[in-house]
Design a protein that fits this description.
about 25% strand, Immunoglobulin-like, TIM Barrel, 3 domains, 27 strands, about 15% helix, about 650 residues, alpha/beta, 6-stranded mixed beta sheet
């Protein structure tokens, strides 16, 4: 429920989302108070017109994710609006969007460090991003940030006026569709004295800094364009389960994923032999020993001669799934995803004894059989997005994965897809073949579903015809986690020769596949004392195409020699750190033991694999990007700061 701030009595304009009664005049606020708490992901109404009209003032808390928030309800808005991309420090943007639920709307995204004051104009069609000017007499140097922002709508032709100190907004606030034109703007009138006083006295992030608070040390990390290996993302190398060779140099090529293909052609009429199951176990052991994880696909043949080669007995297929499921559970720590396979040549769900494409019943039996046998939370991927929609059309909740249900363990939340004819326009060789769904409509669906489930695939010869700008744009919308490094070589060579953003296109894509967490800023005290605490705050951005899709532990560590203070951030889930999240702020207060020796300590962020077998293996820890940031190859730690002083008072 949206928390509300009681404005007392007021006169002036009323505003309703989507139209409604409006009354012009100057608002008058006679009393104000600050809400006791504002949950993350909500907005607060400071002024509400009578009769349930929409908010006239909106306070956005610092924890609000970067996504659209309905001014009337404070809830996340369904529909097609996306957060603004490419907004840098000192920038701000309003982008036009459309929501199927609310109709035409506008949204606002404000970057960190917006100068004071800054009047923001709405971007016109074909125009560039509005940009806040550099420091000038009209926009002096930014002041220390308030951790909140207050907007008030005042008339139908307003402007955004950030006349308060530098704002720190991690959300997007839409202008209601009753605002008539792209030239409509918003304005923030002067705030009542009572409200300013309440904000100043409020505890926590909404309150102003105390005069005697010790100044904090700030470390900024520059943009990092290096490519380096990180688990569960990037280009993969394909291998057959019985030929697990040439693995030694893969990590040097920044490859951390294998596609392991299990050929079942000899078992169409019998159970899998113990020898074949041991072969699969050995393949997973090889992954682990080389610091790799696996995408797995089983099929009854991997050549063009294997059409109609799958068993006609579904019980036989399901029996093989159960046998492999036992091996999957034994080696769950090195699994990234299981591709559904089993039906048709290459397991791509065409050219099967069960139809072309296989029947709905056959597809449901294979997918649901795998979801029952593959250990959660490992996802299962199928070949086309339309298969997800028809398989789950009759399931509770339907086939549209709600953000609140993501990673919740339901069948839908564990079902992703893969495209093995990626970017072969216009239909990716039949991947997008559902009547009434053109490519743009498919991309919108994939954009939403891919935020919460893994996507990957491989290109084909005709993919080389797609311009590099469209390649990158669609990989962003697919939220691509991985691609085949071996096919198609002609397409990949073309990407390497094409230029994108001043660098070879292949380098840009390789760096952004999956997640990539760029460290921006670290705040911490200049010193602390034994028996005290060390408050730290780290700001990150995900500049990759996707988020991680498996759980990951997040911890700050303060260390000196063999002494380690470790604080796990239990409320943080990196799977929610998608590119749309904007600035990700990690905060913790590290307790300094009374017997801590004085001297210089080291502060690190550790993103370890949660599996007991991999937790202490640095090859499976996530590495941050950031110029000036050091990754400890032996300990799997991202070293944020050296020389953190612990001194006796």
């Amino acid at each position: 429920m949206t928390p509300r701030l009681n404005p007392g009595r007021r006169r002036g304009r009323r505003y309703r989302i989507g139209g409604g009664e409006r009354r012009e005049g100057r608002p008058e606020v006679r009393s104000n108070r600050v809400a006791d708490s504002i949950p993350d992901g909500s907005s607060a109404r400071l002024g509400q017109g009578g009769g349930g009209d929409g908010a006239e003032q909106v306070l956005v808390p610092p924890g609000l994710p970067q996504q659209e928030a309905d001014l009337e309800t404070g809830r996340d808005r369904p529909g097609g609006l996306r957060s603004a991309r490419g907004v840098h420090r000192g920038d701000a943007a309003i982008e036009r969007g459309r929501s199927d639920h609310l109709g035409e709307s506008f949204r606002v995204w404000v970057g960190r460090g917006v100068p004071h004051p800054a009047n923001l104009l709405v971007a016109r069609r074909g125009g560039g991003r509005p940009r806040i000017p550099a420091e000038s007499p009209e926009s002096p140097r930014p002041r220390p940030p308030l951790q909140a922002m207050i907007l008030m709508q005042s008339s139908r032709r307003d402007r955004v006026d950030f006349s308060s100190p530098t704002c720190h907004l991690r959300g997007a606030v839409p202008v209601p569709r009753s605002v008539p034109s792209p030239e409509a703007k918003m304005r923030r009138p002067p705030l009542p004295f009572g409200l300013l006083a309440a904000l100043a006295l409020a505890p926590g992030p909404l309150g102003l800094r105390a005069q005697d608070e010790e100044p904090r040390r700030e470390i900024r990390f520059g943009e990092d364009l290096r490519d380096f290996p990180n688990p569960e993302r990037g280009f993969y190398a394909p291998r057959m389960s019985d030929r697990m060779d040439r693995l030694d140099d893969l990590r040097e090529r920044t490859i951390t994923l294998l596609l392991i293909e299990i050929d079942l052609r000899d078992f169409k009429d019998r159970d899998l032999s113990p020898e074949r199951l041991d072969e699969v176990r050995a393949a997973f052991d090889a992954c682990r020993s080389h610091g790799l994880k696996a995408i797995v696909r089983a099929a009854y043949g991997f050549t063009g001669r294997d059409y109609d080669a799958d068993p006609e007995d579904m019980d036989r297929i399901l029996g093989h799934i159960r046998q492999l499921g036992e091996v999957f559970r034994e080696h769950r720590d090195v699994l990234f995803a299981i591709q559904a396979g089993f039906l048709g040549p290459w397991g791509e769900w065409h050219g099967s004894n069960w139809g072309d494409p296989p029947s709905l019943e056959a597809r449901r039996a294979v997918l649901f059989g795998l979801l029952d046998e593959v250990p959660a939370p490992i996802p299962v991927q199928i070949r086309r997005p339309m298969f997800i929609r028809d398989l789950f059309a009759e399931e509770p909740g339907g086939s549209c994965l709600a953000e609140g249900d993501a990673y919740g363990g339901s069948r839908l939340s564990r079902t992703g897809w893969h495209d093995d004819a990626l970017l072969s326009l216009p239909t990716d060789m039949g991947t997008f073949a559902e009547p009434g769904w053109d490519r743009e409509r498919e991309l919108r669906w994939c954009d939403h579903h891919g935020r919460f489930t893994p996507f990957g695939g491989e290109t084909v010869p005709s993919s080389a015809n797609t311009p590099i700008e469209q390649v990158v744009r669609e990989l962003e919308r697919f939220h691509a986690c991985y691609l085949n490094s071996a096919y198609h070589r002609g397409t990949l060579r073309g990407w390497a020769e094409a230029e994108y953003a001043g660098e070879p296109g292949l380098d840009h894509i390789s760096r952004r596949l999956g997640y990539r967490f760029q460290a921006d800023r670290l705040l911490l005290p200049w010193s602390s004392a034994p028996g005290g605490t060390l408050p730290v705050e780290l700001e990150l951005r995900n500049v990759g195409f996707a988020s991680p899709h498996l759980p990951r532990e997040v911890a700050f560590e303060l260390s000196r020699g063999d002494r380690v203070v470790r604080v796990v951030l239990d409320d943080e889930d990196p799977r929610r750190w998608d590119p749309e999240a904007g600035t990700i702020t990690l905060s913790a207060s590290l307790p300094i033991p009374d017997d801590s020796p004085s001297g210089d300590w080291q502060l690190s962020l550790v993103l370890a694999d949660p599996s007991p077998r991999l937790r202490d293996d640095p090859r499976f820890a996530i590495r941050l990007a950031g110029e000036g940031l050091v990754f400890d190859e032996e300990g799997g730690r991202n070293i944020l700061a050296e020389g953190v002083a612990i001194r006796e008072d």
